[in-house]
Amino acid sequence: MKLWEKGTTVNEAIEKFTVGRDRELDVYLAPYDILGSMAHVTMLQTVGLIEKDELPVLLDALKKLYRKAADGNFVIEKGMEDVHSQVEFLLTKELGDLGKKIHSGRSRNDQVLLDLKLFTREGIREIVNATLQLIDTLLAKSEQHKDVLMPGYTHLQVAMPSSFGLWFGAYAESLTDDLELLLSAFKIANQNPLGSAAGYGSSFPLNRQMTTELLGFSNMNYNVVYAQMGRGKVEKIVSFALANIAATLSKLAYDVCLFTSQNFNFVTLPAEFTTGSSIMPHKKNPDVFELIRGKCNKIQGVPQQIALIINNLPSGYFRDLQTVKEIFIPLFAELHDCLSVATLALEKLQVNENILEDPKYDYLFSVEEVNKLVLEGIPFREAYRQVADKIEAGEFQPEKDLKHTHEGSIGNLCLDEINTKKTVVFQNFQFEKINDALKKLIG
Fold first, then answer.
1. Which one from 184, 261, 277, 315 is the annotated catalytic residue?
2. In CATH, what class is 12-104?
3. Distance in angstroms (rounded) separating the CA atoms of residues 295 and 391
4. N or C terminus of the chain with fewer C-beta within 10 Å?
């Protein structure tokens, strides 16, 4: 069944090519397509396009389909072009001509726009929750190991004292900023395109504000041409925000891989979190973090892929946009897996508490010695020269008693402040408003 079918048989090879992976990927959109139809028919009744006694019949049938889709039992049958065709076919099969009324005032163009936005909203919510769990794990590890010193590096050369409190806390705050960017992307995604039809509106007296409220959107895409132009743009913006989270995860994974090597020996993964070698019996490889790094680096390429697909398209709908779904929809599950596994592994990560006993790290404290001389009244450049001379002569003896007090330093990690930043950005997503609206719609 094709919603545009007019009696012409499409060449089989052409049909297979143009349908592409829609049947496979549209299964992920099914619950959202049905929610959109529920909001749409509710609005159609208020403007006289569906009779009052017809609405509860349609809603009851749609709710049954929604429960089926939410449970993972919705199937797009062979011969169906997409999820929109399948839903309308099932309604028509059950309700006859009444099922054919649901398409009034909309196009597959604004249907898929809506489906993708609802899918994206839910996907972002799941990513936010997974990121919050990782942030909480990092903050807990930071507090637990706040007094354990480790080397800090610049140019991969021993530089200054750091601590595991600083290291874990740095990634917690980085992810918090990543959520700020995701919040901006979420606000752009959380606008209702329904009613824009094929990108030029409808002569029906649609109530777009009503469907905006029914579906829990914070706003609508007012201009119907821009609503259609948002296809691809929203996916690019959201994927860029997700790529920032992936970039933070990739850097963290690189650190862990480096720090678990015998040459560093800063941290250790339990044996059950490592893999082995087929020929080297001693090997315990940090494959989990290597795969996180690889997957997250792949995710960082998605915004560029989407940009290349949509960059040279003029306004209006083009079938090129179908290919965006193939790289955008799987993005959420892959990043979610990386976040979840990283959280699990970091919870079990073991810290070496005696790293700085190795004399090769003595020079970490050279700046501390310079600062000590400055506090005694010696000009900084002269203090620097005195310490440098001691180092060159092999006479430098470090004092390892650190007294860092300023905000964000070894002695003042500001973990409560980072936690507050995290809480505030989460609250600004206002997921509860969306949940309330959809619960009311589903009944």
1. 277
2. mainly alpha
3. 44
4. C
Distance, CA of 322 to CA of 423 (rounded, Å): 37
Q: Report residue 140 CA to chain centroid gap.
A: 22
**pLDDT per position as a tens digit, 223-267:** 999 999 999 999 999 999 999 999 999 999 999 999 999 999 999
Six token digits for residue 45: 């009744």
User: 158: part of which helix (H) or strand (E)?
Assistant: strand 157-163
Whether 155 is catalytic is: yes
The residue ranges of every structural domain in the chain are 12-104, 109-357+407-442, 359-392
Helix axes 287-299, 322-348, angle to 10 degrees: 150
**Alpha-carbon torsion 12, 14, 18, 20, what sign?**
positive
Any idea which fold 109-357+407-442 has?
Fumarase C; Chain A, domain 2 (1.20.200)
The two three-digit tokens of residue 411, written as one number: 């002695």
Q: Which of 104, 107, 142, 155 is catalytic?
A: 155
Q: How far is CA 183 from CA 176, 242, 364, in A?
A: 11, 11, 39
Q: Exposure string (b/e) for 200-230, b if CB count within 10 Å is 16 or more? A: ebbeeebbbebbbbbbbbeebbeebeebbbb
